[in-house]
TrEMBL record:
Protein name as annotated: Kynureninase
Pfam families noted in UniProt: KYNU_C
Region annotation Disordered: where it falls in the sequence: 1-40
Catalytic activity entry: 3-hydroxy-L-kynurenine + H2O = 3-hydroxyanthranilate + L-alanine + H(+); L-kynurenine + H2O = anthranilate + L-alanine + H(+)
Biased composition (Polar residues): 18-27
Gene: kynU
Source organism superkingdom: Bacteria
NCBIfam families xref list: kynureninase
Protein's pathway: Cofactor biosynthesis; NAD(+) biosynthesis; quinolinate from L-kynurenine: step 2/3; Amino-acid degradation; L-kynurenine degradation; L-alanine and anthranilate from L-kynurenine: step 1/1
Its EC number(s): 3.7.1.3
Organism in which the protein naturally occurs: Streptomyces pyxinae
Amino acid sequence: MSETTQEQAGENARRSTGKNAGKNNEAGTAGKETSVLGDRARELDAADELAGLRKLFALGDGENGGVAAESRAGSAGVYLDGNSLGALPAHVPARMAEVLTREWGELRIRSWEESGWWTAPERIGDRIAPLVGAAPGQLVVGDSTSVNVFKALVGAVRLAGPGRDEIVVDATTFPTDGYIAESAARLTGTRLVPVEPGAVADAVGPRTAAALVNHVDYRDGRLHDLPGITAAVHAAGALAVWDLCHSAGALPVGLDEHGVDLAIGCTYKYLNGGPGSPAYLYVAERHQDRFDSPLPGWNSHADPFGMTTGYRAASGAARGRVGTPDILSMLALESALDVWDGVSVAAVRAKSLALTDFFLECVAAYVPEGRVVSMTPAEHRERGSQVALSCPEAPAVMERLIARGVVGDLRRPDVLRFGFTPLYVGFADTERAARVLAEVVREVPAGGGA
Ligand SMILES: Cc1ncc(COP(=O)(O)O)c(C=O)c1O
Ligand SMILES: Nc1c(O)cccc1C(=O)C[C@H](N)C(=O)O
């Protein structure tokens, strides 16, 4: 995509996204708008430098067959839920067949060494590292995000040392982080201080051990100021722990550049690792020697096969390991990461913003006025890679959208959430999703249920 077309998309969207995202429209104007925006979508797709990546995914487009073929059989099949579960890269099944038949089926126990199973957590951590702006040796893959939140937060309190007895937590966080933070606070004898991300800088002080914040909010898609909040947390002498679930693979993170202390994130959203694929833990190199994991399993022992009774922590990222890695999920993730070869996160970010701008513009043009309100920040610097629309009839609307092949998700009670994955979502998909949304909204009466 050229810079001019991106700027054009952004400018048009800025003009059209006010508080009321849907400000059109009598049925009569829709035809003209549709053809203009449809033409623009085709132009934007033609100029899109990432467009060729879509064929790497099993989205039912034809040659790859795949899971969504039946949903594309109708007029519209658009997958806008990659911020919950990323699509399957088409080459992964063949790689998994090899893992099952050759590595497990034939080599069996030898694969821990010969197939590189034992070192997979650090090796795959190094594959993810450039996507989140980290030098090698600081990420380890394994366990769920929830478990890694626990390791990171308790580890951060221990790193902060005595005299610091408060954990500041993002009050708007995805629930699991809040639940785990509450337990971590009880276990470490600290007090939990929940605040909005924008208030973290004012909430931290001499008693703060650590602050846990989401980079992008899972509901409204707001992008929080990682550099600014991290600097404020550091100025208070505390550690900054970031949850990257909704930003990794969608926008630049800059962990090393901004001096983040610890971070965690899942791999099944924009990294397309598959359902329940293992999460990652980042411990900045400067903290690794003192990182004291609250889950010191044998996999993080300096000499795991020594099988000694006393624990001695491994050095480096391996210190974040716990028990036997979930190899099948891990190797599916490793294979899925191949789609990133040669792809720049900056290009992904540029396309993501152009897609969300264009979606907001199409929604404003097509959806009858007052039926949906955008919760997604208009400012690019505050926007992740999703659009959230509040709509009182959201349950009925999302059910009908999915039935017509436009797959977003519902966050109860009234949020329609659409995730834009630049590796496989295009501008024609985006225009079509807004068009189908407008049709569905017209069918569901205001105040109407499912
Ligand atoms: C911000 C955030 N943190 C954590 C999680 C999930 O944690 P887990 O991978 O343990 O289910 C999610 C989504 O599921 C999320 O959106
Ligand atoms: N992790 C999920 C799962 O195992 C099942 C269904 C949804 C999810 C999610 O990822 C939810 C997601 N974090 C969200 O932003 O809403």
